[in-house]
Each structure stands twice: as structure tokens, then as C-alpha cells.
Amino acid sequence: MIVLIIVLGNVVAARIMFPGNDWKIVQCDVGQGDALVLNLGAGSGILFDAGPEPRLLARCLRSSGIKSLPLVVISHGHADHYFGAKGLSRKFEIGEVWSNGNTIIDEIIEFKATKVRQGLKASIGEVVIQILWPDGTGGNFQSLGGDGSQENNQSVVALVTWNDRKILVTGDIEPEVQAKLRREFDLESVDVLKLPHHGSRFQDAGFLAEISPEIALVSVGEGNSYGHPNSELLNALTEQGVRVLRTDQDGPISVAWRFDESARRYIFTTRTMKKEWWRVQWR
Predict the structure, then answer these.
(1) Sign of torsion, CA 89 99 199 41?
(2) pLDDT of 256-269, one tens digit each?
(3) What domains sit in the chain, N to C, each tagged with a CATH number?
(4) Is the model's pTM score more than 0.85?
(5) Phi and psi at residue 38, to the nearest 5°
């Protein structure tokens, strides 16, 4: 069975330092933005989005022990997802960059990204990445509250399979695209969901119900003016039995798993447990 370990916050515990031993995922705390890194081992990682601030992204990567990024995936051309990549190649060894094709991303990363579309599948070590969206048709989507729905709905959506664990990274996709994905793909076995659009109220209930992940990660800035994350959404996820973790309250989030003879799963926390280590049986 898998033991999942969640390490929250910037604090240092007596027996372990962030991001912990054998970590697999770190949801960076980059304020009102998005940046998530997967650990390939030996200081190497895959980065999904870069947040709004280069300094905050670099701090997250360095604290996670990352020195090289064979793959960087920038979901779409909104600054809270790409601007943190400015100057990234001067600080870290970068391999390939994927994007939805928005040329503003090329300007920030200082070289041309590869435009990816639905159907692409690639492997890096034990990690398999399948691109579920965009589908290349462009699409004319309903404009929701705020701005940027058309670009949000062109976000790169990646399904990551890591041995028998599955992680869905969703950018800022809104309900129309979420509904298309649940109709077109089997998403029932997803374990970890990077919640779309910072936990915005604009979510397709059927999409979230079908996935029903074990963990939902919310990358969001403290006291933001957008109302992210939506409290009703979080309550609904909790009622589904989803463990919701959010960077505005928990700080950076580290997820680790390992095989164990026990049939139980555990969550370990720091900040949310008053900086003490507690073992909480989970599922």
C-alpha cells in the first residue's frame, strides 16, 4: 500500500526539514499564482507553472533541492503562471519548455517553447505525462466573472502517472473545459488534483465529483481580492472526503509516498498541528 505524507509550511521540525524525505510533489507558495514541482531525484525536477515572481519561485526550487529542470510546463499566458520564469534559465539548468503556444511566454522564458496539444504523451524516468488539453480547436468559451476566460480555457492540462499514482495539473481551466474533459477521459483514478484556477467558484461539479481525489492542492495568495478559494467549493470537497490543502494557510505543501506493509495511510503536518508532528490516519 501507499503511505502519503503531507508536510506543510516553512518551519523546521526536530526530525525533518521541508520538503521532507522522499518527497514527490511540492506545491510552491508563490502568493496569488501557481507553481508545482515533481521530484525526479538527484536534484532534478519537472516544473508546472512558475508563479508571478522569480524570487519566490527560485526560493521554492532551492529549498526543495532542485538544481535542474528537464521539463518546464507553462499552462497559459497569464502572469501569475508564467512571469516567475523570467531569468529561470540563468539560475537553473533547463531542458525543454512546453506551453499552450502563447507567444508572451516565449518572451519571458527567453527562448521558444514547444506548443503542446491533446494526445501528446512523454516519459521522463518513471513519470509519464499525458496532455489532455488544449485540443487545438481554439474554442469560443463563455466569459465568466473577472477576465481572461478564453486564455484560462486554453491552459495546458497534464495527467501525470507515477507508478500507480496519478496527478492532474489543471492550470486555470473553467467549467466548460472541465466538463469536456470528464466526458472525454476517465479521471476516476486521480489521486492528487491541483485544483483549477486557485479554487475559484467557477467549477464543474461533475468534474470534481468524478475525480474525487484523495488530495486537492490549492495554490492561492493570502487575502487576495478574487475571493479565492471559494468556501462553498472547499466545503463540498471536504464533504466528498477530499483532503484540501492550501498555500495561503499552510504555506508550501510537500507530498511524499512510499510502499509499506501497512494498509493504512497517514498525513503528517506541521503548521496546522501547532508545529508538532502528528500522525493522523487517513482512509
Answers:
(1) negative
(2) 876 454 433 444 44
(3) 33-57+68-250 (3.60.15.10)
(4) yes
(5) -105, 140
